[in-house]
Amino acid sequence: MFRYLPLIAKNCWRNRRRTLLTVLSVAASLSLLGVLVAVYTAFYLSDTPPDQALRLAVRNKVSLVFSMPEAYGAKIKAIPGVREVMAQQWFGGQYKDDTPKNLFARFAIEPEKIFTVMSEMKVPEDQKTAFQKERTACLIGKDLAKKLDIHLGDRITLKGDIFPVTLELTVRAIYDAPENNETLFFSRKYLDESINGAMKGEVGMWLILADSADSVPRIASAVDEEFRNATIHTKTEPERQFQLGFINSMGNVKGFLLSICAAVTFTVLLVSGNTMAMAVRERVREVGILKTLGFTREAILGMILGEALLLALIGGVIGLALASALCGMVRQAPAFISQLHTLSIHPPEALACLALAATIGLVSAFVPALGASRTSIVEALRAND
To answer: CA-CA to 347 of 20 to 30 Å: which in 133, 188, 236, 334?
Structure first.
């Protein structure tokens, strides 16, 4: 088939409008498919970072919306295998306005524990000390500081929604981490001192650091068992599983992604199949001439399949380029899901998409190509364009 490559390329370009539309259709479908595959891989197939593999999240068993008593922290710390436990409270609220640029995650934490529990954070020692000593200090991610044009010493005002308070914070430290560099952290004591009423002294979530990965399942069971007879029950799970649970709370995300991928694949298969059927119908007489000149059935079948394969691969390459650009846009967009901050198409996903494009091209062209190759010379030459 490779010796007929110049003829295959020329046949692809004989109807330029149809070729262009076919390539663009495949490219558009593969770009969407590439992004969906990247999202699915990031959520369900990517490896857990070593630091995150040692962390567990403890929340109210009923819902993340409901809090837990502050006294739970000491009981969790006493469980064998727990190196450290840190209270964490989602603050939400508003910074300046509600434009997408100003939307980012905000958590009240315990400054003296955060660098132990989240050891992947890299912060200069002088900044770390300043953050831990000052009650109104805050710690922000490097990417967030760059996006908001914030520097050390700048003031940040957060207007609460869940907590009806306005917090005045000073940037004392900027961290860098492999993932999730767009979060702001500040002292939970400062938040607790600023509020009154039922929410005072409550904790939204506990973050546990285990002494080893082998201890994680045992600690999860032990924490939930500790509060099995308490008024407020807990649900403890590895941090990665907790993040996936948060994603799945929006619905069956895995099923949604897979169904969209299947729909896109079926659609592009129909488009490619219709194109190849039209192309073969227009060239029935040409097939008869080729057979008259001595071309075998196998050669004709190979040329038609090669044409479909070439169009599908060109569309696939363009689609992957578009998908990479879309992944870059997602990485720059505001998102509270850490996996989306590193979303990209890796070589295995790219090869899988190209293999799918090639399969679609071959499958869509096989039936019309087989029919054309079996057409007798007399029938082919009698055919009208």
So the answer is: 334
